[in-house]
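Appendix C. Worked example: Zinc-dependent metalloprotease
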Amino acid sequence: MKNYRLALYLGLSLASPSVFAQKKDTVTTDKEKSAKTDVSSKKTKKIDELIKKGTYKKGLFNTIQVKTDIYFEIPDSLIGRQFLVVNKLSQVPMQVNEAGLNKGMNYENKVISFHRDYVAKKIWVKTVIPQVSSPKNDVITKSVKDNFSESVIEVFDIEAQNTDSTSVAIKVNKVFDGNQKSFNDVLANVGLGGSVKSNLSYIESVKTFPQNLVVKSQLTTTVNEGGVDLPVTLGVTSNIVLLSKVPMDSRTDDSRVGFFSEKHWAFNDRQQRMDEKRFITRWRLEPKDEDKEKYLRGELVEPKKPIVYYIDPATPIQWRKKIIAGVYDWQAAFEKAGFKNAVIAKMPDENDTDFDIDDVRYSVITYAASPKSNAMGPSVVDPRSGEIIESDIIWWHNVMTSLQEWMRIQTGPIDPKARGNVFSDEHMGEAIRFVSSHEVGHTFGLKHNMGSSFAFPVESLRSKEFTDEMGGTAPSIMDYARYNYVAQPEDGVTAITPKIGLYDKYAIEWGYRWYSDAVSEKKALRSLIEKHQDDPTYFYGEQQSYLETIDPRSQSEDLGDDAMKASEYGMKNLKIVIDNLLKWTYEDGKKYTDAGKLYLGAIGQWDLYSGHVMANVGGVYLDHTVFGSNKKAYEAVPAETQKRAVDYLVKNAINLPEWLFFNPITEKTYPVKNSPMGPFEQTPYNLARGMQYGNLYSLFMDDRLLRMIENELKHQISGSKEEIYTVENLFEQVRGSIFNKKGSLTILEKMTQKNYVDALIVSVNKLFEKTAVKAIKIDKTLNIPTICNFQEEAQNLRNINYSSMKRVSEVTTYKRAELQKVLNLLNKSKNKGDDASRAHYADLIIRIKEALNK
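Step 2, the predicted output written as structure tokens:
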């Protein structure tokens, strides 16, 4: 499946006149003039003749439809100009809907230009990735043009021309009806593959406007399910958008503020190396010419062109106002940037017959009827400058199931409104408002700020005064700081929903404040960052790979500056949820399936807490440092914090909470997981066993231990006397809690010892690539609700290599030594306890000896 991040191409420098890697079309040679005369002399078909036979519409390209044939009339004035092709899904059948593809998704963009060939009587279409620039008069510019040239993707015969030969008509059916993939390769880009069946596909409609053109098509293919070919028809919309002659002034990104950005390579004659930059993605927000002096004096002014969002008419009426409110919540942030009434949200005008949510003239919050529980906020970007041209927020109807589960589990103990099977429209509406604000933030160019919640001390989240003043769970709504699971029932906290905060206002000011010249801009932006760089409220923590978290400050779904303390409070509230789960989900005569799903969600919340804490073990605080900064780029989590983290894990994750897995709920339902085959019931013993194994395996993962060894090495070399937490400390702390009992063991105690030993054996074997363990996978997926996971934000994730050449690292030595220590303990206990315990000891001894080749 293609990533739906929509800014697919990269930006251009505007510091000086630039040339893009393309051929010029402005000079007509003598040969071309002669050919042009020849064309006229051969009495090529006139456009007027086509118009008489069909329907003629004026716009960017005038269009002519003759029966099923579609012609574009391309004027010479647009030859050589750059256009952005934007392809979107506009209709999907059930098979594709279930796969997570829905109306409104943009799956392919490309920059194209049209070139007229007078001799061959053709129009050539070329594409370019405009990420390279150079000053027009520099000598190197010739090399730039030759080394970053355009590619031909399509050719059309000239079918007709106007009277004075200043425009020509081309028949374009083949690029929109599926015969050619040059303009629209939908099947490859949505992951279906195969080819379009042209006899079952057709152009549905064509609309043309002054700055863009919209073509809708129905394209059919087949997919094979269980040996049976099933027809799949996709409704697709292709926009052809005229890009401005002069791109928007670009703003270079700074890694200390979280904006999406586009790469750019700049060349010039005076360089000693190529200048690689990144331009942030943002709307072109400027004061009106007559207001610029007022703006520079600090007065709030309205922008020349506000950012407007339309609400999909398919949106249920009761949610419209809340979604609109989520957009308007950003007004205060744009006021920090000097603009009033900068963002507008509204329903489309019923009298606007041209309104089309797939038309790039309209930024739309699209409502998708789908079982998928998600929302996302991508944008269409001018690749030359980073200018956001249009945004499409996709709002899946079923996202409310995730919102309800979060609220019931995280806030049910402190908020009676969040306990029932069905929430009031007002309560659900406030959750919808929060998600609306978050997704709209992405469409302004803002990335997730996973480090924001670390700014608030955990105890402050229990303070009604503090939470009322701050208005949320973190300084940024772009964090995944969901609801306040820290506050206890007796605290009286009511401000429990994420809100737009100080960081959001700061980031919008940094990205959108207008400056009259580049020099003052650069100085002011640097000053703004330096002013706040030591205040944790303005900290930006980038999203990390879900496979491995290095910096424990920047995590998804966490709260506060102390994961252990926050998770302890969370566990207290989670026990209240478990004690009341059957009561809160009661519905006379109904099966317990939904109760089982909520039960699994509660177990997932427990697992989130474990993950938040575990990230501190072997964790490293990562900061984006610059010359002149007094911060360290890499700083290991303090030893005491790591020890406290392991204490929490021993108490709450390795020694499983029996009240969570073995309780009266299991007399009515097991935890229930959704699957393609329907609800999947998971027995408590097997689920607990697998979850515990996953936690132990993650705790002893090679990368974590290598980071701890790296920190130990740094201290050895520097001679530092600072206390550090070592791999040996970790094993000793965990082993002491698991193998501290001799004699007869309970089933859970035996389970824990087996999991401990097996996690070590498997990880050692994997280092030496034993085929017997190659297929082992640790599956901890619980269908935990998530939203906004389209981004994954793989873009610009920080890559730090802690784990090369693991086989010759100290990791294997430590793990084998640990197995030997466990073996020694088992040998002392092997003849103690009941028969089942002695058999258990004997089994583990055999396993360890085989692993150590004894």
